[in-house]
Amino acid sequence: MLYDVTIPDGVFQETQHYRDLPDAIEIAKAAGTWLVVKPVKETSRLSKLMSQKLGKGETEAMLLCEELHADSLLTSDRYAASQAEKLGLRTMTLETVIRDSYDARIIGAPEAVRLLDDLVGQNILNTSYLRRLQREAREWP
Amino acid sequence: MAIGKMQRYAKVASRREVEILDSLKEYYRGKWSLGRAAEAANIPTRALMDYMQKHKLPYYSDRSDSEDGLKKVSEIRSAP
């Protein structure tokens, strides 16, 4: 596997707010298999971090990242990433995941292009950095 | 009576949307995270994501997304 993925309880609960949605079902199925859900132990800093204009899930993810000495925090949220970096955490985006998957030959160029087409086709992920990667991936050998 | 009830629903829905748009404005101005924006609008993050999806509002990954988001938020606000 390319990464070990762990999310805090707070993020898992957020994903399960509408339990019947396909993404919620997929995440619930993944929990306990390739996706580990863990509680945050150090909750005393939660409110202090949340006062820095972060949501509960994002704050828990940063605290868990520190507790586990994780390599990186995966987030597509630019503001959350900037706050995490202030805490000394490394961050990564969906772009990094796709690049790493391609570099590790887990996916080939055609799959990467298909995946990026799907992602960019979802309005919310029609972001500048994914469109850039989409163009770049079309040139990958 | 029914019209009065509908007007009240419309008022609540419109107030909720104003809160969402205010929160998204802070998000696109780089002042808040998306999670914080959802909490400020008093809705689940997933509901805010659905709203963004519906209105073709992107995640904020760089300046051009921010400009695009702010423009669309302003358009939604001024729509009749």
Note down, in words, how this protein is organized.
The complex is a heterodimer of chains A (141) and B (80). Chain A has helices at 9-15, 22-30, 46-50, 56-67, 78-86, 94-103, 109-121, 128-137; strands at 5-8, 35-38, 73-74, 91-92. Chain A is mainly alpha-helical and 141 residues long. Chain A folds into two domains: 5-92, no CATH class; 94-137, no CATH class. In chain A, helix 7 runs antiparallel to helix 8 (128-137). The radius of gyration of chain A is 16 Å and the shape is globular. The two termini of chain A are 23 Å apart. The mean pLDDT of chain A is 95. In chain B, 75% of the residues lie in helices and 0% in strands. Chain B has helices at residues 2-28, 34-40, 45-54, 63-78. In chain B, helix 1 packs antiparallel against helix 2. The mean pLDDT of chain B is 90. At the A-B interface, helix 4, helix 5 and helix 8 of A face helix 2 and helix 3 of B.
Gist?
The complex is a heterodimer of chains A (141) and B (80). Chain A has 141 residues and is mainly alpha-helical.
The Rg value of chain A, from CA coordinates, equals 16 Å
Note the quaternary state here.
heterodimer
Percent of sequence in beta strands of chain A: 5-15%
Structural class of chain A: mainly alpha
The largest chain-to-chain contact, stated as pair and per-chain residue counts, equals: A-B, 29 and 30 residues
Q: Which strands sit side by side, in order, in the main sheet of chain A?
A: 1-2
Rg on CA atoms of chain B, Å = 14 Å
SSE arrangement of chain A, N to C: EHHEHHEHEHHH
Percent strand of chain B equals: under 5%
Average pLDDT confidence of chain B is 90
Largest sheet of chain A: 2 strands, parallel
Count of distinct strands of chain B: 0
State the end-to-end CA separation of chain B: 25 Å
The helical percent of chain B reads: over 70%
Helix fraction of chain A, binned, reads: 40-55%
Count every helix of chain B, treating DSSP H or I runs of 4 or more residues as helices.
Answer: 4
Global geometry of chain B: globular
**Helix count of chain A?**
8
What is the mean pLDDT of chain A? Answer: 95
